[in-house]
Design brief:
Elements lengths: L15 H9 L1 H7 L27 H17 L4 E5 L8 H14 L4 E5 L5 H5 L11 H4 L11 E2 L5 E4 L8 H5 L8 H6 L8 E5 L6 H9 L2 E7 L2 H5 L1 H13 L6 E10 L4 H14 L3 E7 L2 H5 L7 H4 L4 H17 L5 H6 L1
Parallel strand pairs: 1-5, 1-6, 2-4, 2-5, 6-7, 7-8
Antiparallel strand pairs: 3-4
Length: 343
């Protein structure tokens, strides 16, 4: 039977026990402690009790299991929430919503990455960022020529970083073909950077092709903007089928974060009827906030600014602030992000 002997305490310095507890957390240590844990007799200068030494009298399986479970719990705290905004119908306010949500979260202190996955690259220009030159953009990530960290750039909004879009993405499906694992390339690329952010927002193209499948494969949650018109509601069935396919194949943990209405006009019966019909289909998944038709939402992209920076007092900016409040609650994000990341 394998036995792990005590490591000399002096090898780690006198504060080793304190450092270990500071990293993993005393609560986790106590929670995971098994019956074979031994208390060593070495007194810690910073603790009033004997040091409960980690390297004490464990079978190897206990050691491996303990380390794996403790590390997993700790690392989960630093994993970004990845949210894909998707709708296979164009013109529903998906890009405006992606930019506005990402910017508003960043102004609240969250570290946000906005990933422009639409070949039109409208989200990129919407935050005043230039596209990368050909040969060093998002397209090259799919062929292993670059890492995602190589193409992340800042913008004028504090705490908001951007992966600019690429027009070359339009031909990606033809070039990759039936390469095994092609739906998970983005998920793999994000693993190197998601620890640096609280939230990753992915602006999907208006299609159900390889780009959208990659976004849904990388996402934990999908957020659905829905124009307050019946055509938009009828076209939603295709997206729901795509989400179901992804859940059944390569991302079973994908969940619908919520559905929200855009271009809502409270003066019309049509908008109210669409809201009621959406509520009937989605129930609690329907977010209460409705994004109104607002001229400021149409103007701000031409200035390279999100609406919360362009005109924070506008009806559109206030609506997105309220929407972000709902999303923070649903995602379980701490309202004091800096303190949460330091915990």
């Amino acid at each position: 039977m394998f036995h792990v002997e005590h490591f000399p305490h002096s090898n780690y310095g006198t504060d080793f026990p304190t450092s270990f507890e500071a990293f993993f957390g005393a609560a986790l240590i106590n929670e995971m402690k098994c019956s074979t844990w031994n208390t060593c007799s070495i007194k810690s200068p910073t603790l009033s009790r004997p040091c409960e030494c980690f390297f004490c009298c464990y079978h190897c399986t206990h050691v491996i299991t303990l380390i794996a479970r403790l590390c997993f719990k700790k690392l989960v705290l630093y994993m970004a929430q990845v949210v894909a905004l998707a709708n296979q119908k164009g013109g529903v306010g998906k890009t405006t919503s992606s930019v506005s949500i990402a910017a508003q979260l960043s102004l609240l202190g969250f570290k946000v990455l906005l990933l422009d996955f639409d070949p039109q690259a409208s989200a990129t220009s919407g935050v005043g960022v230039e596209k990368h030159p050909e040969g060093s953009d998002l397209y090259d990530i799919f062929f292993g020529k670059l890492q995602l960290a190589d193409i992340i750039v800042p913008c004028s909004t504090p705490n908001l970083m951007v992966v600019p879009g690429s027009h070359d993405l339009v031909s990606l499906e033809l070039e990759i073909g039936k390469t095994p694992g092609r739906e998970l390339i983005l998920r793999t690329a994000l693993t190197d950077v998601d620890k640096d952010f609280d939230v990753v927002i992915i602006d999907c193209p208006p299609s159900s092709g390889l780009l959208t499948l990659n976004a849904l494969g990388a996402a934990h949650q999908v957020l659905i903007p829905l124009q307050a018109e019946y055509y938009s509601l009828e076209g939603l069935s295709g997206l729901l089928k795509t989400i179901a396919f992804v859940q059944q194949t390569f991302n079973p943990k994908l969940d619908i974060l919520g559905v929200f209405l855009t271009m809502y006009d409270a003066r019309t019966n049509l908008s109210l009827q669409v809201y009621q019909e959406t509520e009937r289909h989605f129930g609690e998944k329907l977010l209460k906030t409705k994004i109104p038709r607002n001229i400021k939402l149409s103007e701000c992209p031409s200035h390279g600014l999100p609406v919360c920076s362009y005109d924070p007092s506008s009806a559109g900016a206030k609506a997105y602030l309220a929407l972000v409040g709902e999303l923070i609650e649903r995602l379980g994000l701490n309202n004091t992000p800096d303190a949460a990341r330091a915990a």
